[in-house]
Amino acid sequence: MAVTAETLRIQQRLNQAINRIVDAQTRDLVRAWVDAWTELEPDLTAALLEQLTAGDRVTRAQLLRSTRLRKALTAVADHLETLVAAAGVRMTADLRDVIDLAGAAQASVIDSQLPAGSDLLDDLESWSRVDDRQLAAIVRRSTEQITARTRPIPAEQYQLLRRELIRGVAAGTNPRATAARIVRRSEKRFNGGLSRALTIARTETLDAHREGARLGRMEHADVLRGWQWVSALDVRTCPSCWAKHGSVHPIDVFGPDDHQQGRCTALPLVKPWADLGLDVEEPPSLVPDAGDRFAQLSAAAQRTVLGPARYDAWTAGGYPMDGWTQRRTTDGWRDSWGVSPVPARSRTSAPAA
């Protein structure tokens, strides 16, 4: 397998380009949520203070009858609806770009694995002829997924925030401190919608990128034998992705189907040069081995990756790397590979000395 240094550089540049798009989405969504809360917070605080300073004790029923609080909650609901609608528009705006970026890059990644001067890949512009209906179908599917997953956010977060506001409303010796504490907790509920939106944005954008890469691979199926799962192999890489790194899959299969917000990529693999009729010595692949790379980490870094229980089970020999991953089905999401639990028999095993 002739995965060269140039192959890895091209793939890294592609990953960086996609990450810039996702980072821009993140900044825009965070800014919108922060601005919305900044606008809402004074009215919520004032509505609470109005009740907390009205008597010795405020009941939930009294709080819910507050006209001012009802207006503030209506504003919260309206802002959540607006935020989610805008988030959906923001996410879908990038879909065509990330699909084109991924699809067009596949030819360069493939070409970097062939001998210099080879004419086996003589058409680096093939992506420009991909059927536009295929691209539109990817955008449509991703848009539908974004819409379906963001639609429940406003109602869910509104109810959580409303419950937070009416929980523990008894006035203390300092109504302002009480109101501030309740509003701080409510802000966390409000921002739960942001967390969900960010997860959806990153996952769907990366999945659209992966589907674009799959189409790009198919344009050069004659020289490919599959694609390889490549993970970052750093302390931020989850155990499942460490375990999946290096596995090889058919070229037409979507992937990597890692967990939500996963950073793994699909690296197209050229067929052995001998199978392509090339009488040239083929260099070894430069894709690092996950086991070797993990062994090079410090014990502290290994523990960071695995967590204490998994690390102890691994050092005791009861949790090998190929057992760090399992297929998961999550309602509302595609199937994915996630971290497997420590086998029960390993939980009581003493760690290696």
From TrEMBL:
It comes from the Bacteria. It holds the Pfam family Phage_Mu_F. Residues 161-252 form the Phage head morphogenesis domain. Residues 330-353 are annotated as: Disordered. InterPro entries: Phage_head_morphogenesis_dom. This is Phage minor head protein. It comes from Nocardioides oceani.
